[in-house]
TrEMBL record:
<keyword id="KW-0378">Hydrolase</keyword>
<dbReference type="InterPro" id="IPR011650">
    <property type="entry name" value="Peptidase_M20_dimer"/>
</dbReference>
<protein>
    <recommendedName>
        <fullName>Cytosol non-specific dipeptidase</fullName>
        <ecNumber>3.4.13.18</ecNumber>
    </recommendedName>
</protein>
<dbReference type="Pfam" id="PF01546">
    <property type="entry name" value="Peptidase_M20"/>
</dbReference>
<dbReference type="GO" id="GO:0005829">
    <property type="term" value="C:cytosol"/>
</dbReference>
<dbReference type="GO" id="GO:0006508">
    <property type="term" value="P:proteolysis"/>
</dbReference>
<feature type="domain" description="Peptidase M20 dimerisation">
    <location>
        <begin position="208"/>
        <end position="292"/>
    </location>
</feature>
<keyword id="KW-0479">Metal-binding</keyword>
<keyword id="KW-0862">Zinc</keyword>
<dbReference type="InterPro" id="IPR002933">
    <property type="entry name" value="Peptidase_M20"/>
</dbReference>
<dbReference type="InterPro" id="IPR001160">
    <property type="entry name" value="Peptidase_M20C"/>
</dbReference>
<dbReference type="Pfam" id="PF07687">
    <property type="entry name" value="M20_dimer"/>
</dbReference>
<keyword id="KW-0645">Protease</keyword>
<comment type="similarity">
    <text>Belongs to the peptidase M20C family.</text>
</comment>
<keyword id="KW-0482">Metalloprotease</keyword>
<keyword id="KW-0170">Cobalt</keyword>
<dbReference type="GO" id="GO:0046872">
    <property type="term" value="F:metal ion binding"/>
</dbReference>
Amino acid sequence: MKTIQSLAPEAVWKNFYSLTRVPRPSGFMKPITEFLLNFGKSLNLESFTDEVGNVIIRKPATPGMENRKGVILQAHMDMVPQKNNDTVHDFEKDPIETYIDGDWVKAKGTTLGADNGMGVAAIMAVLEDNTLKHGPLEALITVDEETGMFGAFGLKKESINGEILLNLDSEEEGELYIGCAGGEDVTATFQYKEVEPEDGDIAIKINLKGLRGGHSGLEINKGRANANKLMVRFLREAVASYEARLATWEGGNMRNAIPREAHVVVTIPAENEEELIDLVQYCENLYNEEYAGLEEKISFKAEKVDMPKGLVPEEIQDDIINSIFACQNGVMRNIPSIPDTVETSSNLAIVKVVDGVGEVKILARSASDSMKEYLTTSIECCFNMAGAKVEMSGAYSGWDPDVNSPILHAMKASYKSQFGEEAKVKVIHAGLECGIIGANIPGLDMISFGPTLQSPHSPDECVYIPSVKKFYDFLIATLEQTPVKE
């Protein structure tokens, strides 16, 4: 059976395979950090970590190219850990199992880690190839991008020497990104003292799964279902019509992933069991009908479980349900001057109600700081009216497009020369690290590009094999044609 190591370009794919062997979920960076440092040192290149854990590897210019502008090749080392409900996988121990499906590389029941493993693999290929022509190079491989861009935030100006930054974290070959959305985390917290279940009630667990999920920036405009939003529709009706009482709720696990699964435990009078089961079946049919063509098969099932020790008080329960029902989720509006690109959106990412605490976590994104503030304030007002404590954190501004960028013009010309077609210049509705790095190190000339990926942040993540060679050939040509220092 053909393996990914045999795919072209082999230099990239063999390094990507090596990355799939190293556990690297966000927040668990030690193994991958050591792997990258050892890789750089094995090539006799200056390799070190900065104070926040970013890996930096420096490669001198090839003879005759010393007068070129220094280039920073930038990617992030962490991956989003998502798996199917029936997949047994420990992201802190187990390697990612890959396979080839036609023109695509996929993973068996988990995220693939092509976001941003393909970027890291390309950087590794450049570093180890002494036949390439390039000016001074620095590999900047950042930590914990997916959970808060901590590596980018912590980067210091003195750590980096280059003038041009090539971010290899975009996901459509042939597109050059010159701007991105900013973001901010919103967390709403409800505190409560549990109350005892009613005598004669029974407990039912409702499981919602099978949703496609995906990247909460790149795929927020696909119209896919949000597990927390589907669950709250069911819960509101169950409470209103069948005397259901909420015990626990867990939905979603990453702010930047559209939630794919959710489950709740409720109690109901025993005589209402059959009607509640009918409601579950009705919702399953309804949701599959509403999302036909967008979701493959939504599963919504109920099972009897042991009675929980405590319930959410009725007034708090209603506040939680009503505020989640009302909370903005999805695309709010597109960029007026670029109407095919999302400007402002939110992802109702995580709901966890258990042991006296109800927590709702939302990621708000916008290419406009004023619209981001408007969105986060509207979410804050929604939950404030419900009596929740609301906190904002992790705010970062977007990356303002520079259409006069010298490296942009050089790369557009290079792409046309290589492939006989124009590269598309775009702004992305995702939180690239360019905006943060550019704020920390003013004056960098920045472009983001990459191979074609689909459904990052979900177990459907895959990379289009033919795009990888075009991406890598373009990267090599860009390095060869780096402008001379002024």
